[in-house]
Amino acid sequence: MISLASVLGLWGPAAVLAGGSLAVLAIGLGASDEHRPPAWLMRATAAAAVLLALALGAVSPEAARPPLLRGDLLGSSLQAVFLAAGLPFLFMMDPADEVPPALALGSLIGMAIIAVSGSLLALFIGLELMSVPAYLLVARSRSPRALEAAVKYFFAGGAAAALFLMGMAVHFSAAGSLDLAAAPGRVGEAGLALMVAAALFKLGAVPLHFWLPDVYEASDPELAGFFSTGVKAAAVLLLARLTGISQGPILAVLPWAAALTILFGAAVALRQTRLQRLLAYSSISHAGFMLLAVAAWAGQGRPLSAAGAVFFYAAAYLFMSAGAFLWLKVTGLSERSELKGLARSRPADAAVLGVLLLALAGIPPTAGFVAKFLVFWEGFKAGIYAPLVLAGLGAFLSLGYYLGMVRDMYFDEPEGEAAAAPEAGMTRRCLVSAFAVLALLLGVMPWLVDSLRAGGSR
Q1: What percent of the chain has pLDDT over 70?
Q2: Model pLDDT, residue 224
Q3: How many CA atoms lie within 13 A of 213 on its CB side?
Q4: Would you call 142 exposed, middle or buried from its count of C-beta atoms within 10 A (0-12, 13-18, 19+)?
Q5: 179 three-class SS
Q6: Measured between alpha carbons, how far is 302 from 363 in angstroms, rounded to an integer?
Q7: 276 neighbors 265 (Cβ within 8 angstroms)
Q8: Distance CA 357, CA 338 (A)
Q9: What count of Cα atoms within 13 Å lies in the side-chain half-sphere of residue 118?
Q10: How many Å apart are CA 269 and CA 398, to the nearest integer?
Q11: Among 152, 207, 254, 374, which has the minimal tally of Cβ within 10 Å of its Cβ?
């Protein structure tokens, strides 16, 4: 028997987000220009969804199997990560317009559905609910190239949706159902390969990354941070669900795709001069590490212990990447040349970015070091040695731009007069500083994230 508590527990975060989104739109439609929806409403909605996701384990999600739904520890853990990724975006956006927060909450609804999907149909519904609001959010960004980037994002997302639909059709022809179960024969593997390609599109893995740099650069920094953390974490979970039903050569291809993604992202980022585009290519490289963590988990037979590397990397990357993009928002800097001599004119800003860059580079004792160590450790246990060597080379290449930016701030002379810091508000600056502190704290005490996950499963 499926208990009502199990169903409500699995649907809880999505229901809270849907209610909050409708409330924001309803208040906005009936309010005057002077009385827009309160900012606390959208933030409280996302926070409540995160708390519900952390508490999903209280209804025994491993045993819950309602129709179209699936509850497990990996899903509830990653759900908390990508829902939490929406909080800084909602905090940084301008609350004068009710449409962007409603779109953001709508995208989070899709992510919440992906987390509890127990069939390919539910995964596709969640994927599209996550993606369509994202296209509109890019189009509403302040960049003059926002509309062009939104169109590119839309067509790339449409290609991913088409691949997923074709994969579902092929899978159904082989298995006779859309359940999350392996389909027999080469036809079943072909259908799964198409759906995995759609997940790699959303993750931004090479060679399906072509849309990502332009979209991230044209988006507002806080939106790019949301894409690099929340959307990527949801894509990682989608990929984990698909690899969980694979029994063929796809598992052998994933480690090499991950290594290629790490190398490409790190190599191209070395040549970037615009900070937001540099972080976009950096996010491609980090997507490769998350893909490598999924490949190592699947290569070991999908034990729960190996899934810890997937969860920890996604959680640590949330603080590192979102913090770096939000730093661009509060400081107003856009070019790498503007970092030169920053430690002399704005030492607090330089210190915060320095910690975030060291974490992204994987320098101990930051969260980035622990996250990369866990991925390499699980990869070693899975026996994917050659891809690990290439991933190590990519991690070494990334030091060129991460440590290079630290050198720019602390050892180079400024070019011209230093730009004055914009009025970003003390609260927003404290939020970015908190992300840097957490990126450092999780490296010193990495068990904090695991304890939080375990606490939600009791």
Answers
A1: 87
A2: 92
A3: 18
A4: exposed
A5: strand
A6: 29
A7: no
A8: 16
A9: 15
A10: 8
A11: 207
SS3 of residue 79 by DSSP: helix
Dihedral pair phi/psi, residue 160, rounded to 5°: -65, -45
For range 164-190, the mean pLDDT: 86
Rounded Cα–Cα distance for residues 31 and 58 (Å): 39
Own/partner pairs, 370-374, CB within 8 angstroms, 24+ separation = 370/312, 370/316, 370/442, 370/443, 370/446, 371/289, 371/309, 371/312, 371/313, 371/316, 371/317, 372/289, 372/313, 374/293, 374/308, 374/309, 374/312, 374/313
**Of the candidates 63, 152, 58, 70, the residue with the CA atom closest to the CA atom of residue 115:** 70
Helix (H, G, I), strand (E, B) or coil at 310: helix
- Measured distance CA(315)–CA(138) in Å, rounded: 24
Cβ–Cβ < 8 Å for 321, 225: yes
Amino acid letter at 277?
R
The distance from CA 30 to its chain's CA centroid, rounded to whole angstroms, is 34
Cis omega before residue 207 (within 30°)?
A: yes
Q: Token digits for 372? A: 């990369």
Interacting residues of 371 by C-beta distance below 8 A, sequence separation 6+:
289, 309, 312, 313, 316, 317, 362
Per-residue pLDDT tens over the stretch 250-259: 888 999 999 9
Are 396 and 330 in contact by the 8 Å Cβ rule? The answer is no
> DSSP of 205-248, one letter per residue?
-TTS-TTHHHHHHHS-HHHHHHIIIIIHHHHHHHHHHHHTT--S
Asked if 321 contacts 360 with a C-beta cutoff of 8 angstroms, the reply is yes
3-state DSSP assignment of residue 302 = coil
Strand, helix or coil for residue 384:
coil
Q: What is the mean pLDDT of residues 109-113?
A: 90
Distance, in Å, from the CA atom of 416 to the CA atom of 419, rounded to the nearest integer, reads 9
Cα 52 to chain centroid distance, Å, stands at 19
Q: Which long-range contacts (CB under 8 A, 24 or more apart) does 413-416 make?
A: 413/340, 413/341, 414/340, 414/341, 414/342, 414/344, 414/345, 415/337, 415/340, 415/341
- What would the pLDDT profile of 242-279 be if each residue is shown by its tens digit? 988 877 788 889 999 999 999 999 999 998 999 999 99
CA distance 180 to 304: 18
Question: 274 has which bridge partners?
Answer: 335
**In Å, what is the CA distance from 332 to each residue of 268, 276, 282?**
24, 11, 20
Question: What letter represents residue 217's amino acid?
Answer: E
Q: What are the CA-CA distances from residue 356 to residues 282, 399, 443 (Å)?
A: 13, 13, 12
